[in-house]
Write a structure and sequence with these properties.
By secondary structure, the chain is α/β, with parallel strands linked by helices. 48% of the residues lie in helices and 8% in strands. Helix 25 links the parallel strand 8 and strand 9. The structure holds zinc ion. The site of zinc ion has 9 residues, from helix 4.
């Protein structure tokens, strides 16, 4: 880009006629018709955001009014010749009868008076004097007042063009004297198409994905698009490809963002955290991530509101079309709002990825009222022995300790043992309610559905945990209780008939219960008990110890009949003997124990849960969101203590 003759694209490709204007057809047609019919107004107002062509239209209009044609005999025209002195000099910004004033820097009464003074003189060479006041809303009230009379009754030869990004700030008396045209932000497709035309003219190699990215970043402004294109070409050393444009814009590959939304939809906290670490590792910006996420959610909302509205041919619409059925529309809106608010928070943290993590975790804490209100009608059900065995196999490997129960846990361990058998539904031995089954199927595998029903499921029954995995290479071994819980996890769930998971029978702690739990944890950590033997110990409450008997007799109360077998009892007794150094006779009693390791664990978890939920509820931002979205509720159990 060291070429001396290089002209920035925005200037080189500035439209010089109405025919070259892109994306403002409505304005161009109206102006061209008026000029063709010689219906001239004395003041024009062009409104619209920056960089969409207000000044360009003004210059073309000035040429139309002053063009003399190639032969010097032309009159007012909608198609300026481009070669007469008026056309050439206006293009080169040196035509004495075309005056541009930037009101942002010349806003006072003095500048206004000077302009009025110049208005008193007839045009030097042209048919018309054209005064263009850019950012006209910035003129002071005094300046406006001074101009008003001239604006009301201008001399024949004088035309005013006012331009503003903020017409609301213009005085009504001024607005009423102007013929107003609203220039619209250009659609990304329009920008991309024009950009492609220009790059082809410039013989710059380019790809469609890069064009789309840049066109979106331009936010409807062709001038911004061209100046970004200049930067991208310089950045890429003459190339204009997706990777380069992405890197320059700091934008984030759509696959990352789609994975994040998918993880939120499936309430998969660990997947969310892994993805953030991946983004950090790749050096992709947190800001860019949230920006892309906002765009994806916005596209999803469109698809949800009007299925089929997204362009099926546009590769950028694949993800939103696929993901739209995973979330109900109101949750999509909620997530969008969280993303927008989250963007403002990034700068407040030294570690932008930590801030990004907070924003994403906040998303997991919410779910629409329909879900939150749904009773925990389908508690986790007992896992078949096969899954339990797989859980055992997995727990002896490096599988991280995990939340104690739930379909996700069962799914993951099963998948670990046999990837081919990765289930589409959690391993349950009871027929799951149809809605539950649908929900557990991987969302991606489902065809898009018009309704959001598919989503409602992951939070029913037991919401999957947020943050549950220790890093596999965690140097510190997980505490015995964690190991125990992980090991016995798949089988921990009780049959639905026994009790709902959220309402465990009250713990009635006893001294023996405390000792028993410590002993069971020691045995489990040492690997002395496994599978169903461990499950028996975990579910049992030690009620009496008779040391006078020979050997000592311990009474264990166990609710589940399937665990009260002689074989399991004998294996547990053998393990106890090895640990204690003397034999123990075990007696298994029927009934629910008041104090078992399982019950203690559940009580502790519930207490941690309550604390975590309170922390989230106390978060002012969460409160603001709750107030804003009447349908938002914190899903009971969706928050896990970190
Ligand atoms: Zn001309």
């Amino acid at each position: 880009m060291a070429c001396m003759s290089y002209v920035v694209l925005a200037r080189k490709y500035r439209p010089r006629s109405f025919a070259q204007m892109v994306g403002q057809e409505h304005v161009v047609r109206a102006l061209a018709n008026a000029l063709a019919q010689q219906r001239l107004h004395h003041a024009y107002l062009f409104t619209g955001t920056r960089g969409i062509g207000k000044t360009t239209v003004s210059r073309i209009l000035a040429k139309c009014l002053n063009c003399t044609g190639a032969d010097g005999r032309g009159g007012i025209t909608a198609e300026p010749c481009g070669v007469c002195s008026a056309c050439v000099e206006i293009d080169e910004d040196r035509y004495i009868d075309y005056i541009e004033l930037d009101a942002a820097s010349n806003r006072g009464i003095d500048e206004a008076r000077e302009l009025i003074d110049r208005a008193a003189y007839k045009p030097g060479i042209g048919r018309f004097k054209v005064f263009m006041i850019d950012e006209a809303h910035q003129l002071t009230k005094d300046a406006f007042s001074a101009l008003l009379k001239t604006l009301e009754e201008p001399p024949e030869y004088l035309k005013f063009v006012l331009a503003t990004t903020d017409p609301e700030k213009m005085l009504p008396t001024v607005l009423s004297r102007c013929l107003q045209f609203n220039l619209r932000p250009m659609a990304p497709q329009v920008v991309a198409a024009h950009l492609e035309h220009i790059l082809r003219s410039e013989a710059v190699a380019h790809d469609a994905a890069a064009l789309r990215l840049l066109a979106r970043a331009a936010r409807g402004s062709m001038r911004d698009a061209l100046s970004l294109a200049d930067q991208a070409i310089a950045y890429g050393g003459g190339r204009f490809d997706e990777a380069g444009v992405r890197a320059m814009l700091g934008s984030v590959d759509g696959t990352h963002v789609a994975a994040l939304v998918e993880a939120v939809a499936q309430r998969d906290g660990p997947a969310l955290l892994r993805r953030v670490e991946l983004l950090r590792g790749l050096g992709l910006s947190a800001e860019g991530t949230l920006e892309s996420m906002a765009l994806l959610l916005q596209h999803m909302a469109v698809e949800q509101a009007v299925p089929g509205a997204l362009d099926a041919e546009d590769p950028d619409h694949e993800d939103p079309r696929r993901l739209a059925p995973l979330l109900p529309p109101d949750e999509t809106q909620l997530l969008y709002s969280i993303v927008l608010q989250g963007r403002g928070e990034l700068a407040l943290m030294a570690d932008e990825y930590a801030a990004l993590t907070m924003v994403l975790l906040r998303m997991l804490a919410f779910a629409p009222a329909a879900e939150a209100a749904a009773p925990a009608a389908s508690p986790p059900t007992a896992v078949p022995a096969a899954a339990a065995a797989q859980g055992d196999a997995a727990s002896s490997s490096a599988l991280p300790s995990s939340a104690p129960f739930g379909g996700h846990r069962a799914q993951r361990t099963a998948a670990a043992a046999s990837p081919a058998a990765a289930p589409a539904a959690p391993a349950v031995c009871e027929p799951a309610p149809p809605r539950g089954a649908a929900a557990s199927a991987p969302a991606a595998a489902q065809p898009p559905m018009p309704s959001a029903k598919a989503h409602a499921q992951p939070v029913l029954g037991e919401p999957p945990p947020w943050v549950e995995e220790n890093p596999p290479d965690d140097a510190a071994a997980p505490p015995a209780s964690a190991a125990l819980r992980a090991a016995s996890a798949p089988a921990l769930a009780v049959p639905a008939a026994a009790r709902p998971p959220d309402a465990p029978a009250a713990l009635v702690p006893t001294a023996l219960g405390g000792q028993w739990r410590a002993l069971v944890e020691r045995l489990a950590a040492a690997g002395a008990i496994a599978a169903l033997v461990r499950e028996l110990a975990w579910q049992a409450g030690l009620e009496t110890v008779d040391d006078t008997a020979q050997p000592p007799c311990w009474q264990l109360r166990v609710e589940r009949e399937s665990l009260r077998t002689d074989a399991l009892r004998d294996k547990l007794a053998a393990a106890l003997q090895a640990e204690l150094g003397h034999p123990v006779r075990l007696q298994l009693l029927a009934g629910a124990p008041g104090d078992s390791p399982a019950r203690r664990d559940a009580a502790e978890r519930a207490a941690r849960q309550r604390r975590a939920e309170q922390t989230i509820r106390d978060d002012p931002l969460v409160q603001a969101l709750m107030a804003q979205f009447k349908t938002a509720r914190i899903v009971p159990g969706s928050i896990k203590p970190l």
